[in-house]
Amino acid sequence: MDYDSDDDRMTMAEQLAEHDPSAAAAAFRAIARDHAVDDDVRLEAASRLPEVDEAAAADAFRAIARDHAVDDDVRLEAASRLPDLDEAAAADAFQAIARDHGVGDDLRSDAAEQLARLDPRAAAGFFHRAADDRPRGYRFGGATMLHPPRPPRPPR
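The structure assignment produced for this chain is given below.
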């Protein structure tokens, strides 16, 4: 079928959801994984998937989060929606963003912080590497995530 726009594809998938949820899931997944589709439309398509197929939603969010061509904020948003669907896929997505030197330091750090909640060992690797090649303030933030400051000891 030939569509005039990404929005037309979304409209058709939404209409299909009313009649055939399985076919709608396939349509939403195809849109979410299509590199030619606008990033925000891909994210919207993936966002519609949990209603009809959680496994397809996890796959779609993970694909968006790992796609280097997708806007960094959209990648992080896609990864942020994964923990409720598939923790292993979420950890993989956050790790991919945290390791991507093309992503800004703030977003990489955000991804690593989310990763630390899911897979502390993988996050530790990121923070140790960051400590070797980032300014002192960045290193401190990573070290704090790995080893939170201890509360002061009460006086004796």
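Interim note for the steering committee: The mean pLDDT is 84. The chain has one domain: 6-146.
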